[in-house]
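Progress report, Aim 2. The chain analyzed during this reporting quarter is listed below.
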Amino acid sequence: MADIDVVVQGLGVAGSLLAARLALQGFRVRAYDLSRDYLKPCGEQLTLEETPLRVARSTGAIKTIVRTVDVAVSGKLVTSVTMKPSKWAIIDKPRMIAALREMAKAEGSEVVWGPAAQVPGALTVDARGPYSGPRTFREGLALALRVVARVRSWEGDLALLDFWPALGGLFWVFPYDSEGKVVNAGAGFVGVSNANFVRDQVIKYLRHLLGPHEVLEVKGAPINLFTRPRLSRGTSILVGEAAGLVMAWSGEGNRPAINSAEALAEAIREVGTEDRGALSKTYAALVKKTAREAEMSRLALRLFGTSRISNAFLRLTSDDVWAKYVRQELEPLDLLRALVAL
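Predicted structure tokens for the chain:
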């Protein structure tokens, strides 16, 4: 009999949260990660559903609350969505992950800094991101790049999403502090893997939007946009980005990572690790809503983010549809109605 119940491969948001939850429930956990310091950059936006909000608060990771989201298409404002109550926060993701890792260790998880390994007889959970495998940009990955910059002025509760169908992607500008002195700006374009090109586009965009600014940090990372979500691979259970649970049209992975980790922890608590069939079935039921949202986001991106009709469609989309999109409440029927209206 194995002396470890669960092996967690990867200690990002999903893996570190899962390791903490399982250890708290009394399971013997061994968790692996290549780096003690979290390196992957992102927009650091988090949709404030009940569970993600609880995790963000417990780790002290909330930096500022976004109350207004401006939506633009090819540089022209099409609508402004005010959220009451707010559904978005900007988080300090490295702080969140560091806190979750410490929670996991405090609850008894064994943490190994090095390549992931399997333990015979233990359940293996893959929580790794796109760096972990020999994938290419042709296999569903795009490059997302962010620039942290000091600016003269930006509203501390304002976010901007600017869709550019001609480039196959979007720019974002998020507040990086509540005072509006620092922003997190970035872009991601389908099929583009040249980091220098994306960086230059982001800096050019910032200069046009906000004038002179001081670049404090530039980082890029691949993001999985088109691979269909799947909850297992071989004998491994998948969570977070490893499962393809990323909202392709916005690039958000934090909320799906938290929700899938909580769902798997609950499934393991309910049925244990021995009956893998029952575990997979229970996990699939608990994470169904998140997986469905990820599927829909991929469909939306394929239909409206990179097609010939994209520019006209996005410009003519109603304010109500945009509001649902910003609040992460968009349904397939909403997209169908918008397309028919066009």
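Residues 137-224 form a domain with the D-Amino Acid Oxidase; Chain A, domain 2 fold (CATH 3.30.9.10). The two ends are 61 Å apart (CA to CA). These observations will guide the mutagenesis work planned for the next reporting period.
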